[in-house]
Amino acid sequence: MCGRFVLIESLRAMQNLFGYRIDERFPERLLDAGRRYNIAPTQPIVAVDAGLDGVRHVRLVRWGLIPAWTKDARTQSLLFNARSETAADKPSFRTAMRHRRCLVPASGFYEWRRMGTAKMPYYIRPRDGSTMAFAGLTETWLGPDGSEIDTGAILTTSANRLMAMLHDRMPVILDPGDWDEWLDCGNRRPRDVARLLRPAADDLLEAIPVSERANSVANDDEALIAPLAEPLTVDAEPEAEKPADPTPDDEPPAQGSLF
User: Fold this and answer.
1) Catalytic residue among 9, 102, 111, 139
2) Which of 77, 104, 128, 207 has a Cα-to-Cα distance from 232 of 20 to 30 A?
3) Can you give the pTM of this predicted structure?
4) Is 102 designated active site?
5) Which of 2, 9, 185, 206 is catalytic?
């Protein structure tokens, strides 16, 4: 799952990477704001979508999706993650999977490893230091008084080999080459993009032991991601070698070795 994450880059700094248009009404003070080290559910997160005009747009949404059919948002469970394997069929996420898919930029995320009675936080990030895009969903909830709340969730998938050391789930990290297809809700149905919702390559990430201060959402500073020890890493699985073709000089195997 993904219950906390980090975004170091500002909206302005990420504009070239994600190729989004910034609305002129977007508050100027937020364009260069960044360096959030402990983003938690109910807080604002960045969402990038294709927009009705086909151009990528960026906005802030509340992390914790509220389905449009919810009558009272105060009684709605906090849907900050959605299982990618079932989201297209779940009433809470079905419409968003069809019409409102997005990218959620992230520098890294936290996961906890149980060590006896304690839980050690790890900061998981790309080994090359790049900014990632989680697969996300958005929904706009309309209150009885006419107020609107833009909300979002992050899709999860089964863990890769590295993440399996910490948890059985991980956020879906989309390859940059897949961003356009994921965002193309007009032409790509959920079944068309299901193959994109796979675990990240085993050698993409590293997991860094960090301070237990990350356990509290009240803490939000750079020291949270300072390494306490060497990171956990996993190399890519080597491709299986094909057996050499037999030569004319090879002797046939003995009868017993055939079984």
Assistant:
1) 111
2) 104
3) 0.89
4) no
5) 2
